[in-house]
Specification:
Blueprint lengths: L6 E3 L15 E3 L5 H8 L2 E6 L5 E5 L1 E3 L3 H27 L1
Antiparallel strand pairs: 1-5, 2-3, 3-4
The structure holds zinc ion (ZN).
């Protein structure tokens, strides 16, 4: 399974959640161990150049068609299971 189908770069990163200024966010330095660990989890500290807002934002988020894809996989699995079951039934009868 291709993971890139499920996650994509958070496009809202470029917009400040506090003042809504576009392209004002900058990645701030990880100051301690916890922030460094958070960074590994793709939650990075950011600060806004125009209003001074500081906070963490998720670098990646689930893509919009995530649930559609999951449903598709489940449907495919159910169909496959149904076909296999029918095949086995007719084979052993
Ligand atoms: Zn701001």
């Amino acid at each position: 399974m291709n993971l890139k189908l499920f996650i994509k770069k958070n496009v809202q990163l470029s917009r400040c959640p506090n003042c809504n200024t576009i392209a004002s966010l900058r990645r701030s330095r990880s100051r301690n161990l916890i922030e460094r660990a958070m960074k590994k989890l793709k939650v990075s500290p950011y600060f806004c150049q125009s209003c001074g807002w500081r906070g963490r934002l998720l670098t990646y988020k689930l893509s919009r068609n995530f649930f559609k894809l999951i449903l598709m996989y489940i449907a495919l699995m159910l169909i496959t299971a149904y076909i296999v079951q029918r095949f086995l039934k007719s084979y052993f009868d």
